[in-house]
Queue: 4 jobs
Job 1
Amino acid sequence: GFFFFLSFAFPSNARASSSFEKERKMSWFGPAQPPQGGGFNPNEELRRRQIESLYRMHRAREVVPNQTYEVNPSELPLTLRIYLPPAFPQMAPVITVSPHQRHRLLDEKMQVHHPSLQGWYPNAVLAQCVADVINDFRREAPQPMQGNPYAPPSSGSSFAPPFTQPSQPFGQGLPPVSTPNFGGGGAAAAGGGGMQFASPRFEVPPLPPILPEIKEMSTEQLQRLSDDVAVFGEFFRGLEQVKLVSRRADQLHQENIEIAQKTLELEPRISELKRMLAEAYEMLSKLRSDYDERSKYQREMAKQYSPQAVMDALRIAMRDAEDASEDLATKFREGELDVDNFVKQFMVQKKLYHIRRVKAEQLAKNPF
């Protein structure tokens, strides 16, 4: 906003010469020789330049001279109607939409409630506010509504949407410029297990409609200020508002240096924590590998000693013991074994068979 104001205050050499040719010694902020019929009104000059920016940036169409203008955004099936109240630019403009649309930025009267309008201040750029509204509509397209109870009147009739007096002074609705701050006073506080952040508020200094330093200058002084870059730079840096912003910038720069120093002081601790983390991760990898091997072995053992596997093994062992006893009986019948050896070996095999059979029956009744 401040640089936009300066662009109004100091036009190019060609425009300045043309202005002098047409207006004859009239300065930017007041006539060198007051014209007949009243003095120079700075608000009217700002209003005129705001309207010119609307023409240049959006090709606006004038509906009511010096009051109401229309803009037809490309790729959007709607029309923005911009009403400039009598106190504009001290008072925010009123923007409405037609035809009737449904959107989060619109109320039931199709009036636009955009942050750029709610935070309006005298040196804001009207064309940029309109561009912000259009960009939001392009990102999130409004939805058409049936009927249009708030349709704009036909051309030729005056259109003045209702507007309300702002509830707070201009500039207070603007979002503050905040920077991260460690602890109090911009320094980093590492105590208590971590850094603590605060967000100091930085209010942009208010700008008057007319700079008193320029208002008292003559036409020659203003011409020199416009032509000589070095003179303009010296004048610009001497403004109280610029000094305030510069001091705040230096303060923020110093706070950033303190934050960087605290960060460098914490670097050894961070490196140590990184090393500990790497060691813990390596140990975790080893434990994970050992766990996987043991889990695999446990699954194999569980599969090998499952109730069904044990039952199958007992049945096979029962058949082996029974086959061995049958072989002994065959050898005894064929005379290959005497009575004593046959009885001794046969009793062992039969006993083993019956033990395994009992175990199989018990396992079938009560599986583990």
Job 2
Amino acid sequence: MQGSAAPSIRRGRNVSESGSIGVLAKAVLACIMYLLSGPALIILNKRLLTVIGFPYPMFLASLGLGASFSIMLVLCQLGVASPSVRPSAHFYLTRVVPIGLGQAVTFKFGMQAYIHLSVAFIQMMKSVTPATTMAGLAIIGKMPDSSTEVLTVLLICLGTMIAAYGEVESHSLCNGPCSPCHAMSASHLCRLQQCPPRRPSQPLRSTLSDCSVGPRRPQVHLTMIGLFCIVMAECAECLKLILTQVLMTDQKFTIVDAVLYITPAGFFWLQLGSCIYEYPEMHETGAFQRITTELPIFMACSLLGFAVNTAGFCVIQTTGAVTLKVLGTARNAGLIVFCWVFLGETITGLEGFGYIGALTAFSYYSKLQLDKKRVEASSDNAKVDAEPDSQTGPA
């Protein structure tokens, strides 16, 4: 009897090992997908916001959420995917709807901040988002695994903060439009989620000229209204990420559940905000007709939005909300360094120091995350090996 039990134990260990490897592979693939699809979406949205002349970021962001829900709903109807939970109305209103509201508040106050604050100050504030997210998770009892992990996140934030000021200093010295690499970086005005809103009486040409500045001294000015806006945007984003991680980990939401239930809430609030702040001008300027003429680009943005949202939920589920924000920071830094090394992009010494420091800290942070996943896999395997011999029966 005992001899026949050995193959059973080995099979259990093999299943556990393959499952642990699958979780690690899922985390790595999700991070790669997020890193690749994000910049592609930023490029297309920047083209729509500036070149094509569709400066309505809340409406554009809602397209990706709406497409994510629609695609997942079709997959569920076809039997390709299926939700694992069916939340009650009370649960949905109290746990899921606030996530969508947080996303809309982040967009609105983030855009409003650009009217009252300098780009340098805003990006310095946004660079600490990974740290504030980690602090928020610690408040609800989800402490970091080690002080080394906390230190690496703080170093990433510090490097990005230094680079943000260095990058604005670089833009202040140029007399023409910013390069494509800088246009996708963290501190550019035409960033996907943080484009400054155009007033109805302000011509589009005037708005676009804001992205092509002449020589000026870099400034980091501060107003109380602007400070309130950026703090509200940061708090809303942290709250959204924390609530999402709670759903994905504590409530055991799967990727299908997250896309099927969370994205409609975000779509609702963003469309509501767009109806209030963007629809009147869209109607006046004939922006809806522009959607039909540029339909392929809008469809591509919607599909990329599905990829970004799915990958983002997967990253939160497998590694956490802090890693999601760290990935976004590292993605911008990596793009600038790539353009500097391979495309001859000119950056200041302060900017290069900040980005290289952030990437170095990110590399170590990634190593810590992989080591943590390996330890979890080893722990799962040890549990299988230590199982009592209840399956083997008496000798």
Job 3
Amino acid sequence: MGFRTFDDHAAEDQLHNEIPDCQDSVTAKIPLLTPYQLGPFHLSHRIVLAPLTRCRSYNNVPQPHAILYYSQRTTPGGLLISEGTCISTAARGYPFTPGIWSEEQIQAWKPIVEAVHEKGGIFFLQLWHVGRVSHTAYQPNGQPPLSSASKQLSGQLFLPCGKELADFSTPRALETEEIPEVVEQYRIAARNAIAAGFDGVEVHGAQGYLPDQFMKDSINDRTDKYGGSLENRCRFPLEVLEAVVKEVGPNRVGIRLSPFADHADAYDSDPNALGVYMANAIHTYKILYAHFVEPRIKKCGEVETNDTLHSMRRAFKCSFLVGGGHTRESGNAAIESGEADLIVYGRWFLSNPDLPRRYELNAPLNKYDPATFSTADPVVGYTDYPFLEETQDQASK
């Protein structure tokens, strides 16, 4: 094992999850393929499916083709995080994204969750509210999108039909007395996720969406108890987290954060301070995990940076997940050094449904096609990426 840079808690966690002597000699050399105890869940490896917006849930209802998509990427003891799932009708901002606010949606999710469980996987639903990253066409009665402030996001988005582009709509700042209503929507959505069979939920607090719009000082210009100081700006996401924890229990809750990102024009003047404050705060709730986006991911691509998640890793004493541009090599290094407990993979898991197997064998990877990431096709770029055996069979012909 390499030099460990984190505190005794992290070292103890790593020691607790060391590879048993009887472990297969092949996987014993690969940190990503070592087992890990994630609260009550025994993981057979440390490769996690990232929450990926795929835009294939027509009328905001999960579809049968998602059964195959998620089951393809399931391994016994593997952790999957669902695509962002809207907590309410006002939470929408992308075409054909699933929801979890209605009974119809709960029932539609059930066979998808069952397929993952039948293969021995652990499945968490990501709770999503896009806030101002929206348009009046998505909103109930054509009302303005909701946010922490009335600042319009630059750029354009696809309208609900999935074909036409339009400017983002100017949002309306939530009134102080309205905020508990949104917190309650998160709580109900978490309850609905458990009713659908999910093992837990992840609060999406990253990448410029509603919680991030409160945390980041480039957006939040409020003068009430939800604006101004760092403590006040973090109040809303922490109230959401507290409500969700009370509803489903801390061992069923994670949160995703991206203090260094400026996705959707959401950036902060002191991202390290923001990240450390949130890491300390969420630790008090004893949630299952924190999922941080690597500092090199600013918008959708990677940049060179000297920023790290080290101080957040030290502050949060429970399971620490990281995602953002990782390869097999960087993921192994992060696990071995103690920088992270689990590595979250998006694009490579999208295009390689058997990613853990390929990493075990250090086999070639399918290339991903960004043009099909968020199309509405139920097969192309979704469930048609070949498994390694299929690739080898084709090569031998």
Job 4
Amino acid sequence: MEGDQLDGKVLIEVTGYEKRRDRESEWVCFRILTRGIDGYEEWPKEAESFRRFSDFETLRQYLSAVYPTALIPPLPEKTMNFKLSTLTADKFDPVFLEKRRVAFQKFIRRLQEHPSIGKSLAFQSFLKDEEFHTSLIVVVDGKAEKWSPAGIEGVVAKKFASKVQEPDRRFLVYKHYAAELQTNVTGVLNYHHSFALASHALHRGYNQFAEAAINYAELETGNPLGVVLSDISDSFDSLVEASPELLKREEVVFADPLKEYFLFADSLKELLEHQDMEQNKYETKRLQAQNKARELEKFGKGEGISGFFKSLGTLNKEDDSVKREELAKKVEHLKEISEDQEKKTSVFNAAALNELKKFDKRKLTDIRAIFLQYAKLQQAHYKKSLAAWMSIKERCNSQILATETQAKDEN
């Protein structure tokens, strides 16, 4: 069931979160605020809803079931991996919840931009209706039924995957890619994690250097060297202060966006499992038609079970003609079913491939932007480091010059 496409018509923001509790447990709900843009009258001027992580999971499961050719974006990770900032094990940690809020914002934005999902009444109800579950409807045999997350779609898909006899090579490429994507993104994140922590350790060393310099400056109190050492200590302090902020920024602009593409690999696998199911449907229908056609052929040659009874004289010519006609009709019927399923599979594959091509295009834009932002961040940071070292150099040079001038004057 569909409504209007919301992209460009409705502003959607995940504005924050709040803790809730009852006598037995406590949880977090994220606030989704929406409003129509430029007087769009089909949407409330302002609407809000509060959703738990499980609500997002339910929505995603439903969309995956109803839109099997769509590449449904991934939800954020449930636990922090490759973390650089200091996070406690508390699931209510404000830093962790803020990261999840940002991830949910991106998830919803990607759904809104999708040409089909953006029009889905279930998606729109999720944004503004308290009881959005009532909008989760599926059509079975022409009848609308309430959908429930049975949790078997993925299991069934994996069983079907092993039964596909003639996999489409166009999708095999993406199967290999999905498996390698997680491996390669994990490699980048691992090395970045190690490099970032090593850089942070270096800056902690600057802190020790600053302490040693200021202690030395106290010894040289009243001497020009004491002033120089104090200035050097201040320069190192500025480097130390920049380190924690750098790690936070690296998580935001580099690690977290890359994690989304690590999780996108599972979205790709999910879509490819759906394609396996569709391919299996076609292969099954085609095999049924082929088997019935062989049965008809054997009957004409007096082979098989029918031929056996015919040889015993239990089938007369009239029975033989009726049997042949029945088999011919079944062959034609199964052939039509097979051809119809072939068309459906062809339409499915075209839609799925279009979705994968859009993913390729978006991935190129996103990954390039991620590394560009990371490069800019590092450039800005090292400019600060260079400025600190230049300050130390200039201070030492000026003090040397002042000392030499003083010595000349005294002579």
